[in-house]
Design a protein that fits this description.
It contains 16 helices and no strands. Helix 7 packs across helix 8. It is an all-alpha fold.
Length: 282
């Protein structure tokens, strides 16, 4: 549909321009247009007015949450139906993993909606919404990232969520594969830490092993950052993992190892320095 598109957004963070403005009037208007295009009952005018009356003092992440709350009022009073409308209003999946700019931040309200309501049986006529929510996140992560919303599911239903991620880690789409690593990071920036993975990161090991040699740097960088997170709380585990990866490692994997251990190396950890030195050899 012609009406469904992303609003204009800066390519990168602009000096002196608050990042929250990515989710300002133009984005709210476009969101309403996109939803109206797939749901003739959506009250576009009232939705825009309700959001804009209260959005000004909010920071970017707060805006995503607030817009999601207003969406709850203006979408059907049934989670499955609401998600169906949101998914039908999406723009096409991203075709690249580099040079993405800030346009994807338009979908922060969408992932916030899934995070806030995607486990609520009562909002879904007392039917388990888990599968619907996972499908939604699978689609959303191809346009933005579901790394924040997936954490609610990892906390509430870890085994069930990991079972899905173990399948997705072999997906043909690099954005989906990256989600498997990025979303399970114990200490993902801008997100709540997952205490169970801080204590025991082992559920993620299958994902990291599977993706450490991924063809896409976008995915490998996430693996490196994930191991870096592990190193903050379980340094010996991260060191052992990286040392094992050194065996017959490609230059690409050596970069992952160096990047993963950069912080303990800066702090002077001898093993991290030794492993990084070995990972510099051709």
């Amino acid at each position: 549909m012609k009406e469904i598109r992303l609003p204009e957004a800066p390519h990168s963070i602009q000096k002196g321009v608050p990042l929250k403005l990515v989710l300002d009037k133009a984005a709210v208007n476009q969101l309403a247009i996109n939803l109206k295009a797939v749901d003739s009952h959506f009250n576009k005018t009232d939705f825009i007015e309700k959001v804009m009356q209260n959005i000004e003092p909010l920071a970017l992440k707060e805006r995503g949450v607030f817009i999601a709350k207003v969406l709850r009022e203006y979408l059907p009073d049934n989670y499955s139906d609401a998600i169906s409308i949101l998914l039908r209003s999406l723009t096409p999946p991203l075709k690249r993993t580099d040079d993405l700019g800030l346009s994807g931040l338009f979908y922060m309200p969408h992932v916030s909606f899934v995070a806030m309501y995607g486990l609520d049986k009562e909002y879904n006529n007392n039917r388990d919404p888990f599968d619907i929510s996972m499908k939604a996140q699978y689609e959303l992560t191809k346009r933005f990232s579901s790394e924040f919303s997936i954490r609610e599911f990892l906390v509430a239903q870890p085994e069930r969520t990991f079972d899905i991620l173990y399948k997705w880690m072999n997906d043909s789409d690099p954005h989906v594969r990256r989600l498997c690593s990025e979303g399970t990071r114990p200490r993902l920036p801008w997100a709540q830490k997952i205490q169970s993975l801080v204590v025991d990161p082992s559920p993620s090991f299958r994902i990291l092993e599977n993706l450490k040699n991924d063809v896409d740097l976008y995915v490998r960088r996430s693996v490196a950052n994930h191991v870096g997170d592990i190193a903050k709380d379980n340094l010996e585990t991260a060191l052992e993992m990286c040392e094992a990866w050194l065996i017959d490692s490609s230059n690409e994997l050596k970069w992952v190892i160096r990047h993963a251990l950069r912080h303990p190396a800066k702090k002077g950890n001898k093993d991290a320095l030794r492993i990084r030195t070995l990972a510099m050899k051709k």
